[in-house]
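This part of the workshop introduces the protein records we will be handling. A record pairs a protein's sequence with a compact description of its fold. As an example, a complete record with its sequence and its structure tokens follows.

_____
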Amino acid sequence: MESRFARSKTEKRKAVKADQRVPSIAAALFGLFIVIAVLGVVFGYERYADLIIGAWVLGWTMAALYILFALKIASQWEKVIVLRLGKFIELKGPGLFWVIPMIDTAVMWIDHRVMVTSFSAEKTLTKDTVPVDVDAVLFWVVWDAEKAALEVTDYQSAISWASQTALREIIGQMSLADILIGRAKMDVELQKIIDERSTPWGVTVQSVEIRDIVIPQDLENAMSRQAQAERERQARVILGESELQIAASFAEASKAYINNPTALHLRAMNMLFEGLKEKGALVIVPSSAVDSMNLGGLSGMVSMAQNNIAKEDK
């Protein structure tokens, strides 16, 4: 009960503050008219009757008060809700407009620019019971100032709460994996839900953007280890496929040497020569290879290659 009473007092203070919004030109004219009234008293003293002077002062003072409370100016992006004896009559603005003091009340000044509201859902459980923190930003605009003023108490707070509850609903319907990879889908669903709730209030949602998704640190570490294991598995699979391709290439190449021992000997000699080209290389050749490939006759060629290597070092 006390909170309700406090809210009503706050709303009344907001309404009074909005109604007492005085433009600078009205304050300047008020001061000018008061100065004219005072000057009339100064210069009319003992020259005119007191009744005339009193009428002069009263007239200029009433005109000053009327200008002060009746003249209003709304900015280019504003619409003003005007009530007459508590009943809505029309929207005023932008620009200069007049109200009847003590009868008309400018209760709300509605901003028609695009508004930005940040909202979040903390420790909200996903479909697979994982607590997450999600931050988002809502871009919205008032398209009907009359509905925004008359259909909801505080349309800005209503938009904020509607966005937060919609975000919690979306998180509860999705698994963690879908949330992490489906931000664009969440943005579309949130925009649709919030727009359906806010349209009767004269507010339309232009876009919703998910800023950040925070998961528990333990789960983040487990997901990191899982990703590393998955990458290692893929690397091993790729290595195995490469070995298969290499073995297939060797099998295909061996067919060329089956009926051509000379080509096989030349390939062996080339491999031996490539090994000897490395500085300080030691090549161990089995005795069976010496007999089958006639490597004994190659000692001269080996010595020649070693001499060439020694000359290059010098």
In short: Strands lie at 71-74, 78-84, 87-92, 95-98, 104-111, 115-125, 131-142, 203-214.
